[in-house]
Amino acid sequence: MKNCILIDDENKSRILLRNMLAEVNPSIQILAECDDLGSGVKAIKKYKPDLVFCDIEMPGHSGLEILDFFNEEEITFDLVFVTGYSEYAIQAFKLSAIDYLLKPINPLHLQDTITKVIKKSIKEKKAEYQSLQQNLSPQSDSNDKCIVVNLSSSTRFIKVKDIVYLEAEGSYCKIFLRNNETLIASKNLKYFEERLTPFQQFYRSHKSYIINLKEVKEYQKTEQTVVFENKQTALMSSDKSELFYEKMEALF
């Protein structure tokens, strides 16, 4: 990664980010600094940067609209959103595995983010951007939200409502769907737990399981087993059962 573009309506914020980049990764060249999304889009199309830092809260157009100005073939750059507060957007970023920075920016977080985006493949990035667009859509309710699932040979977009439960498989994770399909994801259970946190129906019932409470049909106390509508089962730790009942009552 050699160059980047900064998009932020606040000059002070751009100066701070510019100086921080010079400290944590001096090899990155700043091609342009833009104070609104329109000029930022023009700069991206002109310079074709490796990385774009884009503020969210800007007059005229929100930074979240940036992908609307590019077709799939034009998205060859890494994108990192910068935000001061939008909790809704942050949840969407986590769900889609999109990279973001919170203001005030922490230098260590900036360095970690740069390292992270460098490691991602173009295929992964495009999948994440597509998922983000759907998850931020005003027409999309919680049941239509998608999560990016990277498999060994492909990337899938899975609606969270279609997940019955997840099971740890070493450094991987099995995802069991309502249609009885099973996916082997290349991320661990902790990764998916973080991305499913915004959805109240998901519960870590056991060190090896995350369950969708809306799919639970029965809890067998003696076997400490949860039975789902499709007759599949998952384990429940004894110390998790009390909170399980509370969450079920709150959900229904």
Structural description of this entry:
This protein is of the alpha/beta class and 252 residues long. The protein is built from seven helices and 15 strands. The strands form four sheets. A five-stranded parallel beta sheet has the order 2-1-3-4-5, sandwiched between helices. Strands 10-9-8-12-11 form a five-stranded antiparallel beta sheet, with helices on both faces. It has a three-stranded antiparallel beta sheet with strand order 13-14-15, with no helix packed on it. A hairpin with a 2-residue loop joins strand 11 and strand 12. Helix 3 crosses helix 5. The chain is elongated, with a radius of gyration of 20 Å. The protein starts with a strand and ends with a helix.
SSE blueprint and pairings:
Blueprint: E1 3-7, H1 11-24, E2 29-34, H2 37-47, E3 51-55, E4 78-83, H3 87-96, E5 99-102, H4 107-119, H5 122-135, E6 146-150, E7 155-159, E8 163-169, E9 172-177, E10 182-185, H6 189-196, E11 202-206, E12 209-212, E13 216-220, E14 225-228, E15 233-235, H7 241-251
Provide a short characterization of the protein structure.
This protein is an alpha/beta fold. The protein contains seven helices and 15 strands.
Summarize this structure as a short list of keywords or feature phrases.
7 helices, alpha/beta, 15 strands, 5-stranded antiparallel β-sheet, Rossmann fold, OB fold (Dihydrolipoamide Acetyltransferase, E2P)
Count of DSSP-assigned helices: 7
Give me the count of strands. Answer: 15
- Give the CATH H-level superfamily of the largest domain: Response regulator
Low-pLDDT runs: none
Q: In the CATH scheme, what's the topology name of the largest domain?
A: Rossmann fold
Strand content: 25-35%
Give, in spatial order, the strands making up the sheet with the most strands.
2-1-3-4-5
Q: How many distinct domains? A: 2
Q: How many angstroms does the end-to-end distance come to?
A: 49 Å
- On the 0 to 100 scale, the average pLDDT is 86
**Molecular shape:** elongated
CATH class of the largest domain: Alpha Beta
**Topology order in helix (H) and strand (E) letters:** EHEHEEHEHHEEEEEHEEEEEH
Helix content: 25-40%
CATH architectural arrangement of the largest domain: 3-Layer(aba) Sandwich
Which structural class do the helices and strands define?
alpha/beta
Q: Mind describing the biggest β-sheet?
A: 5 strands, parallel
| Rg for CA atoms | 20 Å
